Amino acid sequence: MNRNWILCLAISAAAALPPGAAAQAFPAKPIRVVVPWTPGGGVDTMARIVQVKFAEDLGQPVVIDNRAGAAGTIGTDHVAKSPPDGYTLIVGSPGPMSIAAVVQPKLPYKPATDLAPVARTTLISNILVVSPSLPIHSVSDLIAAALAQPGKLSFGSSGMGSALHLTGELFKLLAKVDMLHVPYKGTAPALADIMGGQTQLMFADPSALPLVRSGKLRAIGQTTAKRSATMAEIPTIAESGLAGYVADNWYGVFAPAGTPVPVVARLNAALVKALNDPEVKAKLVAAGQDPAPSTPEEMGAALRADIAQWQRVVDAAKIKLD
């Protein structure tokens, strides 16, 4: 039997395999999950909680690789340009994905096309906090105060063009109010100035929750569509006075575009199984995150909707970063 005949037989046999059979050998080596932030933050915490169960199901080690810089875009760009074989993944979040796509004209990657969604992992509700010295106890109170004093109330954020900044701009747009944005180099100094009376409010991440529960700040709303299990006592902004307001903060796993569909499906199945594990779920909730596994298609649709929402906000607020 000549070599050409043997090759033809091999090709025919491969073509006859059932869908997904090509992925049965995947993974055959360790998988690297890039976290585009420094260790200890929310994205890193989620990745390390899910890591063990994810690796158990895949049967290969899962290595967390922290590649911080440029608000998460350095690590994201690295993965977007990695081989599309399923062995290099990125944990995405709104900052370097949906928001960077609309505020950074020179972004070296296109999140919606250069990365393949694998699964959403968690939803994290940001919270609207105000100084306890103010007579503002609800979103309705805040809107009334802002309408009565256009441009007088100020809200802090973790930086110009950050997720927390745009969350505030969305509020201004929907409530039709004028408030002054004050950017800081991080969440902590912004929260400190609210407590010190320099600014009046902030759309903060869950790191503000201990300050709320100690009485140093007053929480009047959550940014997500539904109340988070980690702070069920705080109403959503929509139910507290601004119908239609939703600003989801999410984490999700992505692979380079072009990763084979069966490989993405295998990764998705392992992630969903890990996220549904009772021990993993308990640890995520304790860390202020609500498990929210999805299909690749659902994650992709959510990303596109997120980009569209923030594009509207950026256009209305005339925000542009170099």
Overview features:
disordered N terminus; D-Maltodextrin-Binding Protein, domain 2; globular; six-stranded mixed β-sheet; 12 helices; alpha/beta
If you had to describe this structure to a student in words, what would you say it looks like?
There is one protein chain. This protein has 322 residues and is α/β, with parallel strands linked by helices. It has 2 domains: 31-124 and 248-317, D-Maltodextrin-Binding Protein, domain 2, CATH 3.40.190; 127-231, D-Maltodextrin-Binding Protein, domain 2 (3-Layer(aba) Sandwich), CATH 3.40.190.10. Helix content is 42%, strand content 17%. It is built from 12 helices and 11 strands. The chain has helices spanning 3-15, 42-58, 73-80, 95-103, 111-114, 139-148, 163-175, 187-196, 209-213, 261-275, 278-286, 296-317; strands spanning 31-35, 62-66, 88-92, 115-124, 127-130, 154-157, 180-183, 201-204, 218-222, 249-256, 290-291. The strands form 2 sheets. It has a 6-stranded mixed beta sheet with strand order 2-1-3-10-4-11, with helices on both faces. Helix 2 (42-58) crosses helix 10 (261-275), helix 4 runs parallel beside helix 12 and helix 7 crosses helix 12. The longest helix is centred in the last third of the chain and has 22 residues, at 296-317. The model is unreliable at 1-23 (pLDDT under 50).
